[in-house]
Amino acid sequence: xxxxxxxxxxxxxxxxxxxxxxxxxxxxxxxxxxxxxxxxxxxxxxxxxxxxxxxxxxxxxxxxxxxxxxxxxxxxxxxxxxxxxxxxxxxxxxxxxxxxxxxxxxxxxxxx
Length: 112
Hints:
Layout: H1 2-12, H2 21-56, E1 63-66, E2 71-77, E3 81-87, E4 90-95, E5 99-103, H3 107-111
Antiparallel strand pairs: 1-2, 1-5, 2-3, 3-4
Keywords: Cell membrane, Membrane, Protein transport, Translocation, Transmembrane, Transmembrane helix, Transport
Membrane topology: Single-pass membrane protein
Main location: membrane
């Protein structure tokens, strides 16, 4: 135990401490942020951009699936909402942002 106490006294009396420890910590934190950016932030922004482009390109007659899993054909559009025809005489109104994907033409006929 006295061995540890002696080394502590030696450091307190002005022994040279290793230099560069602070710089290593700063570089480690910057590297960690860069890694987090490329793993989490960048892919999420890319998905958001693709989704907003898809929502902006919606047109009457497109076959879509909503985030809740409802399939339908767009019969009417405005700035924030769209009307889906989900079956004969059944139309539902949704927010444009809740469209999950645009389906290839003819998908609804092949399913039902």
